[in-house]
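Continuing the batch. This is chain 6 of the set; chains 1 through 5 are on the previous pages. Same settings as before, nothing changed between runs. Recording input and output for traceability.
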Amino acid sequence: KMKKVILTMLAVAAMSATMQAKTVKTEIPVNGNCSEMCKPRIEKAAKSVSGVLSATWNLKAQKLTLVYDNTKTDTTKVQKAVADSGHDSGNIKASQASYDKLPGCCKYRK
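Output for chain 6:
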């Protein structure tokens, strides 16, 4: 009987461990031109997604370093939010309408 209780407790512990939030760090390519305007816009868009813990865009690398809870969001949702702000993000391109709203200095498409 004791063995069964212990096995049940182990099974419950294993299930609760897999259900806990998993923090993931990843990088997403994001196009932009400047640190003054593009960087805050990109980071704000990424952080607007529920579950994103931090977002830091690097101009030189053209990459967004993202830390998020994968039980609440995924990279596709973040890429869509960033694309909606006018910046191509990973496989998701900003619509022409979103891109056209960017200030002239932020237009990265040639």
